[in-house]
Structure formats: structure tokens, C-alpha cells
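Name: Plant heme peroxidase family profile domain-containing protein
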Amino acid sequence: MMNLALIILFVLVLAFVDSFTTTTYPLRRAVVHCRTTALRSTSRRSFLAAPVAIAGASILLSPSPAHAIVYYDPMLYGDAELKVAVINRVRQKVRDAITKDPQLGVELFTLGIADSLKFNAATQEGGGDGSVTKLSASSPSSKFVLNLASSLKKSTQITLPDVIALASAEAYETFGGLRVRVQIGRVGGDKAATAQNVQSVLQNEWDAEVTSTFENAGLSKRDVAALDAVRGGMIEVVKNMQIAKEDEAYVNEMGETDFVPNTSFGGAAQIYGKGLTPFDDKYLKAAVKGKRGVFADEQVRAVGEKMSVKNGKDGAIALERALGVGKVYTGGKVGDLTGQ
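Structure predicted for Plant heme peroxidase family profile domain-containing protein:
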């Protein structure tokens, strides 16, 4: 009996163990599977996240990437009051310099246009980034804007391209033109591989190559006609002033002196100082009639025949368009960008 009882007990134990194993093993297998899957998933996520983490660290540790686009940051100079103060300081110093040396005004006017025309409309790269000074490092205009920007940076955050653009606009107004809205806050753009070569714009005489440069920057033949008419008119003013100065020197040798008091009140002349003799349409008419320079182009000439820059409107519109090509805003409020 004892043996039979032991045999029955052994059979029952085996049955119980088999039943327990059949019931619990799938559960254990499922638990192990879930843990393995979770481990694999965690490992996969860690593996994929590793390059991202490394890239993020590289971005933080590496220098800022070079920009090929000229961005406009409306908050670069802080609030509107600070911005106006910066603009006024630049305008004042530019006007003072031009009244002492009118030829500098012609060069500053052209320098601002050339800097902006580096913009390539096809690639959307380049623009007013200040690098035009490298093309004419020895010119009085480049030296002037570099020195002015350097001196102003001691107390402001002014950028070189903003100084160049403001100087160009102020030169236009000092020669009798209308106020031009200049959008300030330029940053970047100096690494544009496809920027236009604007060496021809810096030359004394503009030709068909300059017209192509304007068009490649997204401007029109009307723009090049207006700005060449203004530039030529400014050159004529300088020539006439030099002749007048020679005549005055001759009169003074005779012992005669004249004193003409400054009677200008209000407006830019009162705020920033005296201006120069305004430019007129004489150069424009002569260039159109003689088919000279950019006016050798039939379409440019046709625009010039119907144009007058003496009132300042056409020149102001064209200069504002030229100084603002390729605008790409970043940060701040766009409405705060206009330097007025």
C-alpha cells in the first residue's frame, strides 16, 4: 500500500508541475519578449539619437555659419529712439564731410548703389553687406565709411553696410535730392559665392555692363536711367563748384571778399547743415542726345527722353529700390525697420 500511495503521489506531483509549466511559461515568455523588445527599442532610439546629440553639440561648439544672404534685423539698434539717434549721427557726419569735399558725395552715392547691386536675383545671394569697400579700399569713399563706422561703433551697434547705405542716401539729399527711406539693420551676406561683380558700377563712366548689373539685381532700365542721370548731375555740380572756386580765388587775390549769411531755416538743411547746389537735367539731356554711356541702349534712352530728375522724385524712387534689393527680414517687427 505504501508503495502504491507513493506512486500515486508522484503521478499527482508530475501532473501539477506539467499543468503549472503549461500555464505560466507563455506568460514568462511574453514578459521576456516584452523586455527584449523594449531593450531593442531603447537601444535603437539611443543609436538614432546619438548623431543628433553630436550634431547639436557641434552646432553649439562650432562658429556661426557664414551667411550668403543679407538679413535685415529691425531690433539691431533697440528701440525707435536709439535707431533715430544713430541715423541722425551718420547723416550729420556725412553731410559735413560732403559740404567740405563735394567729390566725396559723388563717390558715396555710387558706393552705396554698388554695395547693394552685389545682390544676384537668380540665386538670391549677395547684397549690401559692406564688402564693396574691398573693391575700392584706397578710395576716399571707402576710407571715409570705414573710419566713420569704426568711430561710431565705440558708442553704437552700427554696421558698416548701414553706414554705406545711409551715406549714399544722404549724399543724394545733400545735392538737392529728396529724402530717401533707408531700411537699416543689415547683417550677413558677406559669404555669397554668387554675388555680382560691381566693379563697373564704381567706374567714372557707366556703360552697358552697368545696365546688365542692374537688371541682374532685379532692377529696371528706368532705375539705371534715373540713377545715372543723378550721378551725372552731381558730377556736373562738382565741376561747376571747382570752376567757381577758381574764380573766387582770383577775385580774392584782388582784395575783394564777399560774405553771404546762411538764411536756411527748417528741413534737412537746418537739421544737418547746408547742402550744395542742386543737380539738374543738363547731364541727362546731353547723354540722351549723344547716346552716351547707359543711354546708348535704346530702351534706356527712351526712358531718359521722358524723364526729369530735377524734381528729385524719380531719383529718390530708384535709389530706394536699389538700396533695398534682396531684403530678407529676421527677428523683430518689420514695421520697425524703416529708418525714419
